Amino acid sequence: MKEKHVLADASTLISLTSSCLLHSLKFFHDKFGVRFFIPQSVEYEAVTRPLSLKVKIHRFSALRIKKMINEDLIHVVEDNLEKETRELMKLGNSVFYARGKPLNLFHKGEVEMLALARKLDMGSLLMDERTTRILIEEPDALRMHLQHEFKTNILINRNNLSKFLSGLSHMEVVRSTELIYLAYKNGFFSNYDELEAEAAEAALYKLKYSGCAISFKELEEYGKLIK
Amino acid sequence: MLDLPTASRMMRDAYKSRKQRKMRKANDKIMISSASGFSKPIYKLAVYSYVLSKILSKPRFMGRKYVEKHKEMDRILSELASASSAGDNKTFRSRLKDLDFSIHNVEASDSRFILSMIDKGKLKTAAILYAQGFSLSAAAEMTGIDQQELMDYAGKTRMFDRLEERTPLSKRIKKAQKMLIGDAA
């Protein structure tokens, strides 16, 4: 079985663990040889930070992710990407302009992962966060959205956009909902017996309510595919 | 886009009128300004205008025992507006602290939730920024809100229905299949 490498961001780990579906990563690891990687910033956001907070609301989620890291089901890539991240962030934050001013839409969290993907030439990304995914997939849809939200004309600096996307054009971005749908198709919910399809659909809704960027329309489509 | 003095005056006038809708409208405008030209002071006004609109919407905060607290709030908002018009940043920051203290004071007398109204205001502001098009970590960083907290909140809204995506689901599934299952598919 050919090993497959997938880079995951904090949003995916968060929605999977909030939905009690993090063990689906082990399912893909064992059944299809998928290895999941995260940069250090994702480990910080999803594990270190919630464990260091006084408020213990997200402690259990963080511990579940930490356990997966300890069990080598999620690999933390230790690499100093400060320079690459800074450069990429500068580009990303000078793509969209409103009233002559650049919109600083992106932060280190997502950009460091893209910098890592570029550096390691990894083409597979798991991401539940919306803005960065849309920028990679459909920058013009993001421009239209910003235009609608800010009620002003939004300009795109195409030169900066193409520089930002260079090295990312081959990148495929997938959400946790696609991951869980495929897990279902491959028997992940089979122990639910006659409730299998219902459990799969419910899991997709749970991911949405945990913050995965998916519309209700898409969830309804999934519902039809499952039934 | 609103400047700081205009935003401060809008808040002062809305609060003085004790009309929740007026404060809500001010909040909407300040929120858009906060998103399109983010600065710490305008962001704070966005959070406080949200919280003040909440206070004005609760009948339990409109009773006789709150009259003095509201007057105190009027005074602070008036000084805040004067300080911002005069460009007196030191006084402006100091009045913001007073406003924070007064809001906690109002809430402390009728505390019902673990999350304070100011925390809720920050969370709501973060969600609006994310909905408007800021990335998740940018919205979290700008407001000091935990990413997980923000995802929990965003997931329970319709914000992901507001952006029409053109990529069909079938294509997404194919991509995922190639990525996660590959030749075994």
N-end to C-end Cα span of chain A: 30 Å
Radius of gyration of chain B: 20 Å
What would you call the structural class of chain B? mainly alpha
Largest β-sheet summary of chain B: none
Structural class of chain A: alpha/beta
Spatial sequence of strands, sheet with the most strands of chain A: 3-2-1-6-8
Which shape of chain A, going by the Cα principal axes?
A: globular
What share of the residues of chain B lie within helices? over 70%
How much of the sequence of chain B is in beta strands? under 5%
Q: Mean pLDDT of chain B, as a whole number?
A: 89
The biggest chain-chain interface is: A-B, 70 and 49 residues
Spans of at least 5 consecutive residues with low confidence of chain A: none
What is the chain-wise order of helices and strands of chain A?
EHHEHHEHEEHEHHEHEHHH
What attributes characterize this protein structure?
heterodimer; A: 227 residues; alpha/beta; 5-stranded parallel sheet; 3-stranded antiparallel sheet; 12 helices; 57% helix; B: 185 residues; mainly alpha; 9 helices; elongated
Quick recap:
With 227 residues, chain A is of the alpha/beta class.
Molecular structure report:
- The complex is a heterodimer of chains A (227) and B (185).
- By secondary structure, chain A is α/β, with parallel strands linked by helices.
- Helices cover 57% and strands 13% of the residues of chain A.
- Chain A has helices at residues 10-18, 24-32, 40-52, 59-70, 82-92, 108-120, 130-137, 139-150, 158-165, 176-185, 196-209, 216-226, and strands at 4-8, 34-39, 74-77, 96-98, 101-102, 124-126, 154-156, 172-174.
- Chain A has a five-stranded parallel sheet. A three-stranded antiparallel sheet of chain A has the order 5-4-7.
- The longest helix of chain A has 14 residues, at 196-209.
- The two termini of chain A are 30 Å apart.
- Chain B is mainly alpha-helical and 185 residues long.
- Chain B is built from nine helices and no strands.
- Chain B has helices at 4-17, 20-36, 40-57, 67-86, 89-108, 117-132, 136-143, 147-155, 169-180.
- In chain B, helix 1 (4-17) runs parallel beside helix 3 (40-57) and helix 2 packs antiparallel against helix 3.
- Chain B is elongated.
- Chain B starts with a helix and ends in a 5-residue tail after the last helix.
